[in-house]
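Box 3.1 A note on notation
Throughout this textbook, protein chains are presented in two layers. The first layer is the amino acid sequence; the second is a token string describing backbone geometry. Keep the layers aligned when reading.
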Amino acid sequence: MPPSPFDPVRAGIRQRISDVFNDAEKGERPVLRRADALFAPDSVAWKVNGDVVTMMIGGVSGLLLQMLHPAVLAGVWDHSDFRADMHGRLRRTAKFIAVTTYDHAEAGQAVIDKVNRIHSKLGGVLPDGTPYRVTDPELLAWVHVTETISFLDAWIRYAEPRMPRAEQDAYFAEMARVGEALGADPLPRDRAAAEALIQSYRPRLKADGRTREVAEMVMRQRVGSPAVDAAAGVIMQAGLDLMPAWARRMHALPPGLPTPLVRGGALSTARLLRWAFRGSPNRGVHAKEVTAFPR
């Protein structure tokens, strides 16, 4: 493909996105896509998990849903530095998804093993005196199903509104591989099972002052330059908008932008980033010996 006068613009946008998700001072770099990843290049996971904006929207929605479970909230409250580094928490989640989806299978398994080792040490007591362990399979299942359905629903809303049900089911079946490796149980392997599982958890969910504090910190995140922060603000609002109505009511967050503006802004942002990444090394599949993005 011949050079385009827009190439520097695209490269600049890609660099800004890379800076959001990678701490260059710590040596972090974008994850290269590998043919020997845990998921095949033609998998639904590769398609869904590779769209920057929909994954960010789904990530916000999934996190807000997860916080409604008292034990998940307690795990974040007791064992996370979210007040000082919410951006870092979101960044680590994005890196985990990228590595387990696209990097060498060995790297994907290594990061899963690392998370399992961390989780094995964590637990505590809820405000009502109930003990919890982060390794509780049902707790991990809630985290897995809310995250997975949020990623998928963001993709459907802002990228593929007519996504076939069979592909949606395949996504849950594929992502169950990671959930199983993390110890989650029960694990939905199609959309109907995922929706039923979420409904089964609803009697256990609650929102209190701690829930609102975490949610407000998520919603007011600042991640970069004013232009990046403006886009992030739309994405945060789109994540809130993506949640089921019952979950939005539980959070009782202040009303934001009108829905048409949120969805229009999120769609425009998604299209801009897809244009910026089209034909970039981030979209190629790299041989094992390649360790840095081609210039």
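The CA atoms of residues 70 and 132 lie 10 Å apart. The mean pLDDT is 89.
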